[in-house]
Amino acid sequence: MLNQDVEKVIFTEEQIRNRCEELGKQIDSDYADQPPILVGLLKGSIPFMVELMKHISSKIQIDFMDVTSYSGTRSVGDVKILKDLDRSIIGENVLIVEDIVDTGKTLAKVKEMLYSKGAKDVKIIALLDKEEGRLIDIKSDYVAFKCPNEFVIGFGLDYNQDYRNLPYVGVLKEELYKE
Ligand code: IMP
């Protein structure tokens, strides 16, 4: 079973739900004038998007983008669009929903793309922020939790596409990804 591959749990399902409740309220108040379009980056953002949107009371819409920038446990350079947005974002407030910000390369590119599509404002909300991993000076506007500089899985986060369905965030046993 998946649980056996987890070294330790770092954020429980309940902690994540409580934090999403707080963030949902904050988004309602910060975007009182013009609610945002939530743009989830597939596939890691799905559980976080689902939990977060339940706690937002304003009239928001959601959309998804799929970009590649990562393989195995190391970030790689460029970002390619595999699935683009379904709707126009011209003049809209966009809130990018991301599982984790590590080097920041993915988000820097996506943010630039969304502005070039005519968004009025683009902000970022991330479930986890690995501040020590940052190579590009980009900040998440909203962060659920600061993440230790370890390889984490669960609640959307994967290792070679596995473990996304764990209901919590945990650290993967090192022998499973180190050669
Ligand atoms: P960045 O461009 O380096 O910020 O990469 C962000 C992406 O890297 C995330 O969307 C994740 O897919 C992946 N990533 C970074 N750190 C981890 C981790 O600890 N576990 C799983 N995926 C990670």
Record the SSE blueprint.
Elements: E1 6-11, H1 13-30, E2 37-42, H2 46-54, E3 61-71, E4 74-83, E5 93-101, H3 105-116, E6 121-129, E7 142-146, E8 152-153, E9 169-172
Parallel strand pairs: 2-3, 2-5, 5-6, 6-7
Antiparallel strand pairs: 1-9, 3-4, 8-9
Helix pairs in contact: 1-2
Going across the biggest sheet, name each strand in turn. 4-3-2-5-6-7
Evaluate the radius of gyration.
16 Å
Structural class: alpha/beta
Q: Which oligomeric form is depicted?
A: single chain
Shape: globular
What distance lies between the first and last C-alpha atoms, to the nearest angstrom?
22 Å
Count of extended strands: 9
Listing every helix as H and every strand as E from the N terminus to the C terminus, the arrangement reads: EHEHEEEHEEEE
Features:
globular, three-stranded antiparallel sheet, Rossmann fold, six-stranded mixed sheet, binds inosinic acid, 3 helices, alpha/beta
Explain the overall architecture:
The protein is of the alpha/beta class and 179 residues long. The chain has one domain: Rossmann fold (3-Layer(aba) Sandwich), CATH 3.40.50. Helix content is 22%, strand content 35%. It has helices at residues 13-30, 46-54, 105-116; strands spanning 6-11, 37-42, 61-71, 74-83, 93-101, 121-129, 142-146, 152-153, 169-172. The protein has a 6-stranded mixed sheet, sandwiched between helices. The chain has a 3-stranded antiparallel sheet with strand order 1-9-8, with helices on one face. Helix 1 packs across helix 2 (46-54). It is globular and about 50 Å long. Mean pLDDT is 93; it is low at 71-76. The structure holds inosinic acid. Inosinic acid binds next to strand 3, strand 5, helix 3 and strand 8.
